Amino acid sequence: MADIKVRYLDSQMPKLNVIDNGDWIDLRVVSAIAVLNTEYEIKAGFDLSRHNNWNSRSKIHYRKDDVIVCRLGVSMELPVGMKAKIIPRSSLFKNHGLMLANSVGAIDYSYRGDDDEWILMLYATRDGSLEKYERIAQFDVVPSPQFTFEEVKKLSGQSRGGFGTTGII
Fold it and tell me: What is the pTM of this model?
């Protein structure tokens, strides 16, 4: 078993913990800001979210089509050769109408500095709100296999006919 060093960037947030009935570890939103969907506003939103920009005492409110920049309050030092995969909790869309903007977050072991805070960008499909410290995502840590590329003229598998060709049902 390998140890993961964790730096908490919010002293009030609940600590990460491994659970008995699953492999994924919950991540919580410690601050967030809702911005419109432009490159400039998203970058500005990330900068602003560092200052606990909750628009009420314990909630961040967002509107349909907003991008929500969420700080997760942790920086981690993964063991060399490991990577983290971050996915939304299964209830995030059902309860909040939020989707992870890039589908899966990927963090490799080189993202390990004190200021390399884990964040998420979510897309709102409807109006809603998030509670501070709410569990919104989860992650697991897996090995990154080492490999090389071998150029070949022909592959050994049979062609299936293109993208999306395994059948409808």
Answer: 0.82
